[in-house]
Write a structure and sequence with these properties.
DNA-binding, globular, alpha+beta
């Protein structure tokens, strides 16, 4: 995409590009998301940046109207397996705050200098600046949603000093922390406890997504696999709330997300400047509440919920690629915005998959080895066991081998883990066949391009084969029962014949695709 194309997206206020790039206005000194509702600036006054951190580094402050720091993340980082893609996933998970640039470089297997050089070349900002932008966004959320004292809040957001915190907030938002809190225009919802603990009502958040979002399907998926004690789903279809416990770096938490999605008000672009495909594409959000024992875990908890619900996906790119396929086209049209769910805890997901059986089987592990919450929260009673707790002789052999590998680092399932290396290490373990390893890669590592094992997938589906599988599973009504990603026969070859296309679209689901999912139940 060149700058002229980016400017067209700004003129049409095209929300499809929110998070993909940012634009700044030299006459006002602010930077915005492409869908900002403000008057479109003149082309000569506009500069484009690949990241919010790059715009901040160039001296621009965030727009108070469109809040560019709150956009969905770029789907590019989920697709890419190179150093930059992996680094962005690690930074989103809070590695810089916990381990510094040296820790990030060690995880990536490169020198700190190489990491700095490549991130700066592609994103216009190095790892420290990218992490700083993330901290500032976390601080703004805490200022506007909690009553935490500013001093405690600064350290909870990851800042090293109060001076650094105040300078950063003034530089990015052109406001002091007190002014940002007052600008929320309402009392703090629920307040907060002293000592860095979250309020009884939790921290309320809106987790943004781009484009349409098939909430009913993803809540169906999670409800069918909910492990008692660790997860629960309340309410009826269309008004459900998914709840789960989280094991985090500084403590624990309970996360809640509502099925009913919010929607941004459509914005009227300048006449003649809108792309037809962009109409109705403003996206929306999931309402979420986080109850954390230590607010330093806030940004990490947010990222884990975003990965679980696949909120950084680009449904437009997925629909453009898969919708052109004669087999998948009708399925994509029938379920716009279908997502490929990830995992809030990759190691937990891997253990559940290798264990097999219904969710109640995993619940037995939870009751025997999981850490109880200080106080039960509804049906939530435990954290899922850490791998180190599942290495005893009484644990099923395949699960024990996996947990030993996770505990000693032989298998790494971190947010930015090398997916190819993780897949090879998984397949080397007893009880982990290629199909199970592929399912773990799809969900635990958030890989959007996992194809069927033992079957045929078209290259035309790349890099969105995971979404293709979810569409096929939805249409067949079977669902992925154990990560056994298998097709019993090649899918029908593409055809340009209108009659052939009609016969494909009107055939029964099992005639249109031969999808077999092995019958041992999955978490």
């Amino acid at each position: 995409m060149d700058d002229e194309t980016r400017y067209e997206a700004v003129c049409s206020r095209d929300a499809r590009f929110d998070g993909e790039f940012f634009f700044a206005v030299v006459t006002t000194g602010i930077y915005c998301r492409p869908s900002c509702p403000a008057v479109t600036p003149k082309r000569g006054n506009v500069r484009f940046y690949p990241s919010a951190a790059a715009a901040q580094g160039a001296g621009f402050r965030a727009c108070r109207r469109c809040r560019p720091d709150a956009v969905p993340g770029s789907a590019e980082w989920n697709v890419r397996a190179d150093l930059v893609g992996r680094a962005m996933r690690f930074i989103g998970d809070g590695v810089i705050d916990r381990e510094g640039v040296g820790g990030l470089a060690r995880r990536l297997g490169y020198s700190a200098r190489q990491v700095q050089r490549q991130l700066t070349a592609e994103l216009g900002a190095g790892p420290v600046a990218l992490a700083r932008a993330r901290r500032a966004h976390t601080a703004r959320l805490l200022l506007q949603t909690t009553g935490l004292p500013v001093t405690d809040l600064a350290f909870a957001a990851g800042f090293a000093s109060i001076r650094q915190f105040n300078d950063t907030m003034r530089e990015i938002y052109a406001s002091t922390p007190s002014e940002l809190r007052a600008a929320a225009g309402k009392g703090v919802p629920g307040g907060a406890r002293a000592g860095g603990q979250a309020a009884p009502g939790g921290v309320p958040l809106r987790l943004a997504h781009r484009g349409p979002y098939a909430a009913a399907e993803i809540f169906d998926f999670l409800q069918a696999r909910a492990v008692p004690g660790v997860e629960e789903v309340r309410g009826g279809r269309g008004a459900r709330t998914y709840r789960r416990t989280l094991r985090l770096a500084h403590g624990s938490g309970v996360a809640e997300a509502d099925e009913h999605t919010g929607a941004r008000q459509p914005r009227r672009p300048r006449a003649g400047r809108v792309c037809p495909a962009a109409r109705g594409a403003d996206g929306g959000w999931l309402e979420c509440r986080l109850h954390l024992t230590d607010l330093r875990d806030l940004s990490t908890a947010v990222q884990r919920m975003r990965r679980l619900f696949d909120l950084d996906a680009d449904p437009f790119a997925v629909a453009e690629r898969l919708g052109a396929d004669p087999l998948l086209g009708p399925l994509v049209a029938a379920r716009p915005g279908l997502r490929s769910p990830g995992a809030a805890d990759p190691e937990e997901l891997a253990v559940r998959i290798v264990l097999g059986g219904p969710p109640e089987r995993a619940a037995e592990l939870v009751r025997a080895y999981g850490k109880p919450l200080d106080a039960a929260d509804g049906a939530l009673t435990h954290l899922f066991p850490e791998p180190a707790a599942l290495t005893g002789a009484d644990v099923p052999g395949a699960v024990r081998a996996l947990c030993v590998a996770l505990a000693d680092g032989t298998v790494t399932l971190d947010a930015g883990a090398d997916r190819e290396a993780a897949g090879r290490a998984l397949r080397a373990l007893p009880g982990v066949d290629p199909a199970v390893a592929a399912y773990i890669r799809m969900r635990a590592l958030g890989d959007p391009d996992v194809g069927p094992v033992g079957g045929v997938a078209r290259d035309a589906w790349r890099p969105w084969r995971s979404y293709a599988l979810h569409h096929l599973w939805q249409e067949s009504g079977t669902g992925p029962q154990a990560g056994q990603l298998t097709m019993t026969a090649p899918v029908q070859a593409p055809t340009t014949s209108r009659q052939a296309r009609s016969s494909v679209s009107t055939a029964s689901p099992m005639d249109r695709m031969a999808v077999r999912v092995a019958a041992h139940a999955s978490p």
